Amino acid sequence: MTNLIEVQPGTVGKEMPTKTFRLKHQLAGHPLFQLDRLARLAASLPADSIEFNGPVEPGQDPRLTPSNGLSAEETVRRIEECQSWMVIKNSEQDPEYKALLDACLDQVAEQTGGVMGGARRRQAFIFVTSPNNVTPLHMDPEYNFLLQIRGSKRMSLFDQADREIVSEENLELFPGKHRNLPYKDAFEAKATHQHLMPGDSIFVPLFDPHWVQNGPEVSVSFSITWHTDTSEKLVKLSYVNAGLRKLGFPQASAGTNKVLDGVKVAAYDVARPLYDAVKKFVGDRRKAVAIFFGRTAVAG
Question: Are 140 and 204 in contact (CB under 8 A)?
Fold first, then answer.
């Protein structure tokens, strides 16, 4: 039986890759990614599972992101002419998409001896984009296979360790922080450019900044993400370092001091449930952040 997603022999060694590489998949033309089915999916999910907007730039200020004035379902149905970008988050809430997500990652795990794929915190995101639209520069706090289903796009991918591209502070995670990152045209000289057509897929490493330019047709992409012990630890460290920075104590990068990193991870495991409980009690993220870090942290 042909795999839904194919990892070329020799691509993955004994450790999780830290650089991008290409794959092939068999999902182009799959009925779950037809626009009518995606419109029905968008209409069925909670409002906080759908994000969409009008045309933006690679360095888009999130405070100035334009609305398209449509509903989520209308955006999908009119995607060819409405100059919009949409992401359907956590599409695994629908059993059919969850089954597809699991099948893809299970097959990747089987092909790579468990190094890739993973079983923890699996999530699926579907991007539906108008011709020539842009996904601004951002980074994702999980491992990611991006599968191009329909149309074409070009991704500019950067090394998260390059401080000329992204600062330590901008890489850190914080409750409510927007994913968009500052961008300059000069960054392109350092980019790895990936051109994706239907049937193409790439691995996007944890935290690596990237932005996407859509081609001249409607684009549909399927992003399948997961975590490992290592990625969960790095995400927790990122949150703790951001919190300490908000309190006036910038920290060294993860891995600089493994003993201290362990203390931070343990502190996160204690503090996160407390933060979530406070947020639920006060009913507002900004109030919860102010309680934990002060009002200047909210303003920042």
Answer: yes
pTM of the predicted structure, to 2 decimals: 0.91
Which pLDDT tens digit goes with each residue over 164-197? 999 999 999 988 788 899 999 999 999 999 999 9
The count of residues in the chain is 300
- Taking Cα atoms as reference points, which of 247, 245, 248, 239 lies closest to residue 276? 239
Cα distance between residue 280 and residue 36, in whole Å? 36
Q: How far apart are CA 220 and CA 155, in angstroms?
A: 14
What are the beta bridge partners of residue 210? 138, 157
Question: For 214-249, what is each residue's pLDDT tens digit?
Answer: 999 999 999 999 999 999 999 999 999 998 998 899
Candidates 161, 149, 150, 157; CA nearest to 203 is: 157
Confidence (pLDDT) at 225: 97
In our burial notation (b when 16+ CB lie closer than 10 A, e otherwise), range 137-174 reads bbbbbbbbbbbbbbbbbebbbbbbeeeebbebeebbbb
Tell me which residues of the chain have a pLDDT lower than 70: 1, 295-300
- The residue type found at 62 is P
Secondary structure (3-state) at 74: helix
User: Within 13 Å, how many C-alpha atoms sit on residue 8's CB side?
Assistant: 10
What's the rounded Cα separation, in Å, for the pair 112 and 195?
Answer: 24
H helices, E strands: number in the chain: 8, 12
| β strands within 27-108, DSSP E | 50-53, 85-88
- Copy the structure tokens of residue 262: 């362990």
The fraction of the chain above a pLDDT of 70, given in percent, is 97
* CA 286 – CA 176 distance, rounded (Å): 8
Cα 169 from Cα 148, distance rounded (Å): 31
Residue 234 CA to residue 206 CA, distance in Å, equals 9
> What is the token pair recorded at 111?
């092909």
